[in-house]
Amino acid sequence: MSEQRWQARLWQDARAALPDHVWRFVTAGARDEISLQESLEAWSHVRLYPRVLRDVRRPDAATALLGLPVPSPVAIAPTSMQRLAHPGGELAMAQAAAEAGSLVVVSSNAGTRFEELGTTGAAWWLQAYATADRSLVAPVFEEAARAGARAIVLTVDTPVPGTKYDIDEAAFGDLTEVYGLNHPQVVRGRTPGAEHAQDLTAADIAWLHDLTGLPIVVKGVLRADDAQRCVEAGAAGVWVSNHGGRQLDRSVSTCAALPAVGAAVSGQAEVYVDGGIRSGLDVLTALALGADGVFCGRTPYLALAAGGAERVVEMLDLLHDELLDALRMSGCARLQDARGLASSGTPEPPTGL
Ligand SMILES: Cc1cc2nc3c(=O)[nH]c(=O)nc-3n(C[C@H](O)[C@H](O)[C@H](O)COP(=O)(O)O)c2cc1C
Questions:
Q1: Is residue 177 part of a domain?
Q2: Which residue CA neighbors atom 3 of ligand 1 most closely?
Q3: Torsion-angle region of residue 155: left (phi > 0), alpha (psi -120 to 50) or beta?
Q4: What is the pLDDT of residues 325-343, one digit of tens each?
Q5: Could you give the residue numbers annotated as active site?
Q6: Nearest-5° angle of CA 168, CA 172, CA 178?
Q7: With 70 as the cut, is the pLDDT of residue 2 above it?
Q8: Does 26 reside within a domain?
Q9: What is the pLDDT of residues 278-329, one digit of tens each?
Q10: What is the residue range of 148's domain?
Q11: Which residues contact 14 (CB under 8 A, 6 or more apart)?
Q12: What is this structure's pTM?
């Protein structure tokens, strides 16, 4: 199968499987979708300087994410309402992660109970939205920690949900079993203080760590100075993300933001990236620009819609194969060798080539 074709087929199959309103919900970006488009395209504008004369018979894509050994740096980003994609929802996604030996980040708005996720054997992190009244969500995060979450991913780019056009809200109907099953008191009934926090500070990182005893990853960072503040506040990971172009439109692409964040905190915290990662070449490019781990949001969601857990495993396998191919052709035996592939290593662009 040729590179990229499987993605096109996956999107076609998901389109056929999903009702119009869910397809639009998943594929939409905020406002004019400028960040959505740019995040996709930006990876393909980076140019690589492959290494040669290296032994690449057995490239190894294995790594560790906060101490968790994984066969590939590609993991599953949090996406809400997975039960709209497939009846198995978050459970099926976790089953796929378990089968692939991958890591899955579960949305705090999941329609599956945390304790059920543990039964899959998957390694999972909880994605957390803090509420204006922190005491409303504290028990939810404590419950996730008890149920086996290995880290908390605090999403910090969503003081309000980004405006997306042409979302047919009426078509979603009753979401009781699909959305917010772990904290109905927060998502239903307009509880005062249950709206997203608009006063998050670095102190919330320490608060979450003290509450759960888990490492904290901060998701939605696009600036080196913010990344440094996260690390100073004790974050174990910084996740470069613009929410798949779903929050502030015209925010910089993650590909463009990644190098400065990596340079600021690499060695002090793990650096992750998401947004428009669709191929093994995108993954290699992200590693070259400083990422330790790479997350995909829409691709696993659409794979779940197109063929349940099995299709998600297939998608992860295809990305893995493409990454191995890209590592070989760029002269990288290990992931660390990819660091710096995107610059020539000389102060000036090479001449006379
Ligand atoms: C349908 C959908 C739902 C999402 N839900 C959440 C969420 O609940 N929490 C969160 O932090 N990010 C959420 N995201 C953002 C993803 O975690 C991720 O940042 C983004 O999808 C990455 O871009 P990609 O889809 O191009 O891979 C969602 C994205 C989509 C497409």
A1: yes
A2: 79
A3: beta
A4: 999 999 999 999 999 899 8
A5: 243
A6: 145
A7: no
A8: yes
A9: 999 999 999 999 999 999 999 999 999 999 999 999 999 999 999 999 999 9
A10: 5-338
A11: 23, 85, 302, 303, 305, 306
A12: 0.96
Pocket probe mutation, ligand 1, options 25, 39, 80, 158, max atoms within 8 Å of Cβ: 80
Report which of 148, 125, 70, 21 is spatially closest to residue 335, judged by C-alpha positions: 70
Nearest-atom index, ligand 1, CA of 40: 26
Is residue 316 assigned to a domain? yes
Q: How far is the CA of 260 from the centre of ligand 1 (A)?
A: 23
161 band by pLDDT with thresholds 50, 70 and 90: very high
Pocket of ligand 1 (CB under 6 A): 25-26, 77-80, 107, 109, 127, 155, 219, 241, 243-244, 246, 274-277, 296-298, 301
Query: Locate tokens 């395209």: which residue?
Result: 41
Q: Classify residue 343: in a domain, yes or no.
A: no
pLDDT of residue 317: 98
- How many domains are contained in the chain? 1
What's the angle, vertex CA 117, arms to CA 291 and CA 304, rounded to 5?
65
Residue nearest to atom 4 of ligand 1 (CA): 79
| Closest C-alpha residue for ligand 1 atom 7 | 79
* Residues 57-74: tens digit of each pLDDT: 999 999 999 999 999 999
Length of the chain: 353
Per-residue pLDDT reduced to its tens digit, 209-263: 999 999 999 999 999 999 999 999 999 999 999 999 999 999 999 999 999 999 9
4 has pLDDT over 60: no
Cα of 243 to ligand 1 centre, how many Å?
A: 5
**CATH code at position 101:** 3.20.20.70
